[in-house]
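Continuing the batch. This is chain 6 of the set; chains 1 through 5 are on the previous pages. Same settings as before, nothing changed between runs. Recording input and output for traceability.
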Amino acid sequence: EGLRIAEPQRWPEDLIAHLPALAERLYADARAMLERDPAASHLDEVIMAYPGYAAIVLHRVAHHMLRSGVRILPRVISEYAHSQTGVDIHPGATIGDEFCIDHATGVVIGETTIIGNRVTIYQGVTLGALSVRKGLAQTKRHPTIEDDVTIYANATILGGNTVIGRGSIIGGNVWLTRSVPPGSVLMRKPDAPSDLVAGDEYII
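Output for chain 6:
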């Protein structure tokens, strides 16, 4: 997504103009959460009671504002969401449609993360950087998660060059700093293979 610099004091009008599109995406997020969570019984329950959904709502607004050239307020919104839901999503993170955060607490998604469509993540997941050196501020520091990926509780995925291939499943407590091909299944166990092949199951 390219950065759009709104005219001074025109970003509120820009946000209002895009509210219908944002609402459509957010309803798709809510429907995805209803479909994927056996504990969810109604769409209204997801919208009114799920902290993961609240975090997504605030992120989508903050992200749009940031793309419009607003600087400080998106961070204020993201930190408010963090304090209320336990989900820390930098407003710069790019997140696709039908996104689901189940249980929410302890999730961290860094600034340059790119998440595709129909991705589900669980509590405690970190999508972070391998290094926090200030000199890397303008580089892609956080991973790319392709479409239809599921990441289970407390998995940590680090690095701007790390790509989780489409349709992969990342098991709980996995620590991952390298890319995996589409269709992979990763779980924890010693002696991981050195080469990853699409569609294989890996115990790492």
